[in-house]
Amino acid sequence: MLLAIDTSAGTSVAVVDLTQGVIAERGVADTMRHAEVVGRLIQECLTEAGIQVSELSGVVGGMGPGPFTGLRVGIAAARVFALGIDRPLVPVISHDAIAYGHYRTGHTGPLLVVTDARRREVYWSAYSGADAAGLPVRIGAPALAKPAELLEADFVHAGLPRLDAATISAGDLGMVAELGFAAGRPNVSDEALYLRSPDVTVSTTGPKRVS
Amino acid sequence: MTWQLRRATAADVDKIMALETSIFENDAWSTEMMTRDVTDPGCYYLVAFPPDSPEHIVGYAGLQAAQRSPESDIQTIAVVKEARGRGLGRVLMLSLLTEARKRGAREAFLEVRADNPGAQHLYRSLGFEDLGVRRGYYQPDNVDAIVMRLPIPPAEMQFTDAAAPIAALAQPAEPAAPSAASAEPAPAAPARPLNRSNPLVLGIETSCDETGIGIVRGTTLLSNTIASSMDEHARYGGVVPEVAARAHLEEMVPAIRAAVAEAGIRLDEIDAIAVTSGPGLAGALMVGVGAAKSLAIALDVPIYAVNHLVGHVGADLLRGEGVTTDAPLEYPTIALLVSGGHTSLLLVRDLVSDVELLGETIDDAAGEAFDKVARVLGLPYPGGPQIDRVAATGSPTAIRFPRGLSHQKDVAKHRYDFSFSGLKTSVARWVEQKRDAGETVPINDVAASFREAVVDVLLTKAVAACTDLGVPRLLLGGGVIANARLRQVAQERTDAAGIALRIPPLSLCTDNGAMIAALGAQLIMAGKAPSTLDFGADSTLPVSLIQA
What we know:
The complex is a heterodimer.
Chain A: E1 2-6, E2 11-17, E3 21-28, H1 34-49, E4 58-62, H2 68-85, E5 89-92, H3 94-104, E6 111-118, E7 121-130, E8 136-145, H4 147-151, E9 162-164, H5 170-182
Parallel strand pairs in A: 1-4, 4-5, 6-9
Antiparallel strand pairs in A: 1-2, 2-3, 6-7, 7-8
Helix pairs in contact in A: 1-2, 3-5
Chain B: E1 4-7, H1 13-23, H2 31-39, E2 43-49, E3 59-64, E4 71-79, H3 88-102, E5 107-113, H4 117-125, E6 129-138, E7 143-151, E8 200-205, E9 210-217, E10 220-228, H5 230-234, H6 241-263, E11 272-278, H7 282-299, E12 303-307, H8 308-314, E13 333-338, E14 343-350, E15 354-360, H9 366-376, H10 383-391, H11 408-414, H12 421-436, H13 443-469, E16 473-477, H14 484-497, E17 500-502, H15 506-509, H16 513-525
Parallel strand pairs in B: 4-5, 8-11, 11-12, 13-16, 16-17
Antiparallel strand pairs in B: 1-2, 2-3, 3-4, 5-7, 6-7, 8-9, 9-10, 13-14, 14-15
Helix pairs in contact in B: 1-2, 6-7, 8-16, 9-10, 9-12, 9-13, 10-13, 12-13, 13-14
């Protein structure tokens, strides 16, 4: 049984199990209140699942890509929860959860997952389809782009069926982790996928004059 | 070979300077600086000489330790080459430390060149511990300084020639039984009853650029782990919120692990989590808030969301290695909190129930002003230590920079408020005029005069608050308290006004998780209900909200 937390868009928390599927899932779509709601959602999921934290075998964290301020809250919560219960953290790319959910509900073949990166930019990941385990096969790594770039004829994944998603399901995120573990897949990196440098510029001119 | 020691006087300065300039080739002090220190009653300088030749000085060492100040600084120590390797350095150090203890210091600090392992070995053998590194502190050689600290043992213990053992300080008495639980609605009850008499609390602080994790048991400090992203901000000349927040995420788990290991506890022994919910940088605070809630649920313990500024006051309650005093914090007290993000004057009637904001900066924080003026002077970030360094050889009265909000007309409305933006502009304009005129900018004088303006206005207003409100107690907190001149003037002004001054150890003055844990423990011991899980990061949390 795994606790899954994703704050790459809104806030989503779930308790999942390989055989029982999604046992509990709670979400808040608001993209400005991650720190406020994440605790309550975790507690509600654990209560609804009727489990003790000691029954969890790991904690799944959605690594993004996601706009940075919110993304960090879920990753911090997942890492620290794993530390608190002395179980491993299982990092999962948030776009994989979106793709998994889409294939699970009937989509087949290639897919371009697109999410809002704010500042008039988007994050995208490309998939060729679902494998035998039901896991999405990512063929284009999560990346940042101007919306218009995805529409250009020379975009490397031009013409793929496109799915614009505004929410990420922690239930799907957790199931990607369960299925991946069962299929013996290696974990992805546990780095936060901001895909954008902090907004700072190094001053080369020294301090501005005041007179 | 034996030597005798005697206290140095102004008459010794020339001989001291002859050694100083030959031993510290590139970074020797000036004669004025040495004279000032040697003749300063707040300092204590010794010279060593052969018994048969009192004029032949072979070594000297200096201590700065204002009477009753909890902290002391080893200013300098030097021994001529011919006299080295025979224990004279150790004798000088032991004599200074004995004097520091006599004057009431509980800690001694020093800086040592990173490329001087011999000196480092001596200090470590005396019980000094490494506190941190100041990059490029020694200029022009660009050598790092290792900052070291010695908790000075209580008076009945003498320094011996062996490594000074540090006695465990007496445990504080059990706090009084908590008053009846408050009537606030109780959130979901934790699985086990909360230990309200001596709770083991883990505090998480992420309001700025320090990831602070502290663990306390009641008022006893068990660990104070700080991971700073300061170095990452240096090239930008100030704290970059996004850089700080990213660093918090990466440091959180390692810092918790380190704090737990240092405290010698297991995470599942923790009775409660405390976390800073504000004020501070929103994105930075959110990392701590998210982590703290998650940890509280994982450990099935209550959470206390607390006010960062009140936490700075709570730091004074901690007892453990390096404590300032065994005397309890008395109420009411005025608190002056000065850091890179805050400059606030508080009236604390009761730490857990009654804190009032008297005034705060209306523009830049004092620490920010130090950073900005350092930039104007071409000094690196963080500006505080840099300004302090060059100001040491400058005149604080060379240039009369403005004291913000100190005119009659301002005082009516902003009696306890601060403003440093105009001061910074004034310094910049003064420097520009000099440069435009093709004149050399006397950086040392500018730094000393600027620092004096900041320190003057801070202490004038703090002492005024004490006097106006009839509160004879002043507590200092915040990272700018590391400024030696600020502490010195604070001591002088409060002594003159009959005000008792309290300064927590510097490691508890800068942002840290231990002060947050300490405040959390106070709330628990006072019977306060935990916070619910719904609080957020509040970048402008008012100081009157002690618990969110």
